[in-house]
Amino acid sequence: MPAMLEVKSLTKHFPITRGFPKRTVGWLTAVDGVDFTVQAGETVGLVGESGCGKSTLGKTILGLYKPTAGTVCFQGQVISGVSKSAARQVRRELQYVYQDPGASLNPWWTVGWSLREPLRVHTRLSPQEITARVEEMITAVGLTPDHLQRYPHEFSGGQQRRLALARILVLQPRLVIFDEPTAGLDVSVQATILQLLQELKERFALTYLFISHDLGIVRLMCDRVTVMYLGHIMETGPTEAIFQAPAHPYTQALLAAVPKPEIGPWQGTLLQGEPPRPDALPSGCRFRLRCSYAQDDPCAQREPTLHEVAPGQMVACHVASRTFDLVPGRAAQQ
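-> structure tokens emitted (334 positions)
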């Protein structure tokens, strides 16, 4: 059975321009040769430091950014580089929930108008059918039809996220891309939103691509995890395999940085320094300048490719087989 979403060698570069008239003096590498799949019914987590290319990858998959190279296949069809009319048809089933849900709602429109607009654009439903669909979805996310008469600024952050969910659910999508869905929320509100996401997934048979920097939430929500660094996938595999036995030094450093009050101080080696500039990537492994295990050969000479180190667990590292114990006792502590 083909994957619902298949990304092949996806690359997105942004030009760096200067002067007047503007001239291109370089290229910023945001996404660099990414390959991964999402199966129907899965929740796949996409994690990494700020600036690693997570959000750019999600927006390139959706078609908000035109890929520099590579392809995106959705339900067996290539959707990258298609015409505007074909893209409009795809976006009914492939939706994106932004990090700031309030920004996706027109402040001059009532919530009801904002929820009806996608149906007017993408469907041929009658006004009565549109009203029924909107009321069904506003109820599904835990609000009431009375809320449809209000404006976005009248809702709290948690309620705005519910509204953003209702707005994309009216189109009955198959795959939803979430960009930091719990950022800026109180812990209690986060728990409510995450529970709602699980309930909606089961009720409407949804598939999720979950972009987040919160590893605790990723472990709770996701079936598989993909770790990105400077636009490149460093490690991918089943969630528990990644958290119990991370193979890449970068993954291990990310996990070591997660506070664990019950076990005392942080365990393992924390990341040092800042990532290199994306317009001036180092030779070989792009993580080697921050890696305690890097070697001149092969780390500085050749960029590592993904290879399997455990069933379903892939890692792009020349010395991954030597780094399983970078965080001693991690499996026991988890």
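DSSP finds ten helices and twelve strands in the chain.
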